[in-house]
Write a structure and sequence with these properties.
The protein is α/β, with parallel strands linked by helices. About 35% of the residues lie in helices and about 15% in strands. It contains 11 helices and 15 strands. Threonylcarbamoyladenylate binds next to strand 5, strand 6 and strand 10. Magnesium ion binds near residues 146, 147 and 155.
């Protein structure tokens, strides 16, 4: 019996039943809040665009930030991301734990494009909390989970915080008591030549440097979302994107929204024929990628109403359409 089995066997019956229920809800595309050693996460099946779209809807975030994808162990992590030597050293030393590693996606990575905001990279974490571990082992799916609070509010460290903040926007809350660390995970970008800290959190810089045997720098990506470094970390299609379009030009693909599309000849995809913003959010990155891959010179995007999830959709379209000099 390894540590994981001991911890899980020690969970009270009620908690085990709650974990079963949570796993079932996740499999059906539901939203489940669960404790980790850092903060409570708002989890959804990371392989489902629709389930991930519900996270953004529930958080009421006006932007699609890339999310952390949680898995049960290193084997599950390696199915999703490519680990450099440094990434592997950090994972071996500090997982399970309060560490998130940004790595490149594997070619077959099944994680929703929305979960990583269309990026070719992925933030992965193996949490140590016994309830989180039991849930991830039971559900056997990658689980995308930001902190389980409405956007702009304080991160939740108790089940009651989640209920107060999200109410019935979350399908179920697994109550595992207080989160022992109470501060988010440390995020380390391992996609470049040297690992870089993107966010300070539960694991200190000194511990990372001890594992790697080298100094580790910090790069502030959250400070200024319009800084060039931040913009370049966003997915942008190769094709030129025109927004709020009612007429499609020659050589352009159409990114539609709603039942009435303008006349068009090239490739066309509809974010949501029914004009449903949740469906549109789920399709956004996958459709942009697909139209871009068709080799068109431009993509004409129809207007999307700027309400609810439409705000985040428009934010992302505007960024993807921004002129690029870099
Ligand atoms: O402790 C935690 O990390 C908690 C628990 C639930 O695991 N989760 C959490 O998630 O704090 P969230 O969504 O609040 O923060 C995710 C952060 C964002 O600041 C985002 O910019 C960064 O992770 N991130 C995610 N994917 C990334 C990527 N591919 N590249 C760079 N940064 C990424
Ligand atoms: Mg957060």
């Amino acid at each position: 019996m390894d540590n994981e089995d001991i911890a899980e066997a020690a969970l009270p019956q009620k908690l085990r039943a709650d974990i079963e229920r949570a796993a079932e809800l996740l499999r059906r595309g539901g939203l489940v809040a669960f404790p980790t050693e850092t903060v409570y996460g708002l989890g959804a099946d990371a392989s489902s665009d629709a389930a991930v779209a519900r996270i953004f809807e529930a958080k009421g975030r006006p932007q699609f930030n890339p999310l952390i994808v949680h898995v049960a162990n290193m084997a599950a992590a390696e199915a999703l991301g490519c680990f450099s030597k440094a990434a592997r050293a950090l994972a071996n030393a500090l997982w399970p734990g309060a560490l998130t590693l940004v790595v490149n996606r594997t070619p077959q990575c099944p994680v929703s494009a929305l979960a990583s905001a269309g990026l070719a990279t992925l933030a992965l974490r193996v949490p140590a909390h016994p309830v989180a571990r039991a849930l991830l082992t039971t559900v056997d799916l990658p689980v995308a989970a930001p902190s389980a609070n409405r956007s702009g509010t304080i991160s939740p460290t108790l089940a009651a915080h989640v209920r107060t903040s999200l109410g019935d926007r979350v399908d179920f809350v697994v109550d595992g008591g207080a989160c022992p660390i109470g501060l988010e995970s440390t995020i380390v970008d391992c996609t470049g030549d040297a690992p870089v800290i993107l966010r300070f959190g539960g694991i200190g810089r000194a511990r990372l440097e001890e594992v790697l045997g080298t100094p580790v720098k910090f790069r502030d990506v959250d400070g200024d979302p319009t800084a060039p470094g931040q913009l370049s970390s966003h997915y942008a299609p190769r094709a030129r994107l025109r927004l709020n379009v009612h007429e499609v030009l020659d050589g352009e693909a159409l990114l539609g929204f709603g039942p009435d599309l303008p006349p068009h000849q090239g490739p066309a995809l509809n974010l949501s024929e029914a004009g449903d913003l949740l469906e549109a959010a789920a399709n956004l990155f996958a459709h942009l990628h697909a139209l871009d891959a068709a080799g068109v010179s431009g993509i004409a995007a129809m207007p999307v109403p700027a309400e609810g999830l439409g705000e985040a959709i428009n934010d992302r379209l505007v960024r993807a359409a921004a002129p690029r000099n870099a």
